[in-house]
Amino acid sequence: xxxxxxxxxxxxxxxxxxxxxxxxxxxxxxxxxxxxxxxxxxxxxxxxxxxxxxxxxxxxxxxxxxxxxxxxxxxxxxxxxxxxxxxxxxxxxxxxxxxxxxxxxxxxxxxxxxxxxxxxxxxxxxxxxxxxxxxxxxxxxxxxxxxxxxxxxxxxxxxxxxxxxxxxxxxxxxxxxxxxxxxxxxxxxxxxxxxxxxxxxxxxxxxxxxxxxxxxxxxxxxxxxxxxxxxxxxxxxxxxxxxxxxxxxxxxxxxxxxxxxxxxxxxxxxxxxxxxxxxxxxxxxxxxxxxxxxxxxxxxxxxxxxxxxxxxxxxxxxxxxxxxxxxxxxxxxxxxxxxxxxxxxxxxxxxxxxxxxxxxxxxxxxxxxxxxxxxxxxxxxxxxxxxxxxxxxxxxxxxxxxxxxxxxxxxxxxxxxxxxxxxxxxxxxxxxxxxxxxxxxxxxxxxxxxxxxxxxxxxxxxxx
Length: 464
Known about the structure:
By secondary structure, the chain is α+β, with helices and mostly antiparallel strands. It has 17 helices and 16 strands. It has 3 domains: about 5-50 and about 320-464, no CATH class; about 55-100 and about 285-310, no CATH class; about 110-275, no CATH class. The strands form 4 sheets. A 6-stranded mixed β-sheet has the order 14-5-2-15-1-16. Strand 11 (about 230) and strand 12 form a beta hairpin. Helix 3 runs antiparallel to helix 13 (about 315-355).
């Protein structure tokens, strides 16, 4: 049968039986709308949680928990800081599942921080500041000009003994064990998006402070503050004498420590050596590894356990499993709706074809083959399914739009609240229509085969 003739037959049947076909396609509309709504919601939430909050393609590995002495032990000097030797780092870099490996080094000494008056209108601070150091190459994309994320000691100016000898905003970087130092720029600091979100949505409203962000940091010429090294509310470091340095927030990065601040790795090496000794400066506290694909994460974790390393945070993996489970359940519900609609399609087509039995016999008598009859019926089902799938897609899209609007108006601000809870990839939009047509065809296969087997003589006699 020619394509033009087939299209003509399908168009005629759509006009004649539009009421029955519309009723039969109601389930397709409901199932497609539910499938699109659930999947777009799941994909949207997944992109936020596993993209901004818990990146699945990056894993931070650290020594097993039993080797961690805890913050109090570090302050009191009762136990050495656990570390990852350089040879283990080289071994990890050779793993085929990894793209990059970035060593990290935590503060091995107590510290406090206070400042930010140029942004907040008053100095704010903390009695205990946590931090770590990372390879500048890891975060270079998160630092925008004119700032640079590097150890300011390497580009330091003239020698000095105190801050009075340096032109502001430079200060005298002088180790407590040395008599002379260098005039250097404030130490560059990165803060995490997680910390910014917590501050903006929790701390700032409670204290009447303005929210902060990358644009505000840039306009304010960087947020500067004083960092007190070697002492905090919990006590003093076991080596060195407490001193104050200047620091400047130069960016917001998803690779920065969640609660605390991130500095260049060479800077932390110097400070750890000054306040905690050689071992704290020469071994790493953790490794941030970037896997080739999220599916390789399990293999990387298994390899790490054999070298005495464990994931610092398994929330990404747990959240991924939870989201996949919920998506599977919701998809199953939508699939059941589509299967029920397929059975409704089968019933409707069986009734329609029974009424057209004489017509089918006439078609067969004038030369139509069984394949022609099946193509006619299945094409009609495909068109009905595609049209109903498109309607379901539109309804699902409108439902998602309404849900987004209600969530934006009714839900309070919370960390990482997205502009939209839904994601609409092209394959999902096309797949909604394709699934509608597919399930309609599945429902029409049985009636189509039965119609193709009709004996022309019997059908014409019964019709006459």
